[in-house]
Amino acid sequence: MCGDLDGARRAPELRRFGETLLVHLRHVPKAAERVSLADVMAPDRTLEIALDPRLSPQANAARYFKQAAKAERGLAEIPARVAALEAEIERVRAARASRRDDARGGGRGRRR
Asked: Which residue among 14, 37, 79, 111 is the one 20 to 30 A from 61 at the CA level?
């Protein structure tokens, strides 16, 4: 779950990579594994962007947009998943405590 959250937090970076690739399409060599391009949001900064050499520059940008959208959905879903897991952990802890009490004789009134 922590890995999911870390990945989800990368959504802005992934979207920025896609936008930068689209703006600089003509500067992206075909079959490149990575490229250094001026950041569209901060032109004084250079971004190192990993590419899939089997894809065109446009397809690499689309891949980054798709990853960003998935990460953004994750950011919306993860808090509810964390809350559900925390509730389940509490339920299991309570059940274990109840069993321990029963094993110690705390549940004598229920036995026959």
From this structure: 79
Asked if 17 contacts 8 with a C-beta cutoff of 8 angstroms, the reply is: no
What's the CA gap between 79 and 1, in Å, rounded?
10
Q: pTM (2 decimals)?
A: 0.66
DSSP, collapsed to helix, strand or coil, labels residue 10 as: coil
Nearest Cα neighbor of 60 from 7, 19, 9, 13 is 19
HEC secondary structure over 26-90: HHCCCCCCEEEEECCCCCCCEEEEECCCCCCHHHHHHHHHHHHHHHHHHHHHHHHHHHHHHHHHH
Q: Cα separation of 46 and 13, whole Å?
A: 13
Give residue-wise pLDDT tens across range 20-63.
999 999 999 999 999 999 999 999 999 999 999 999 999 999 99
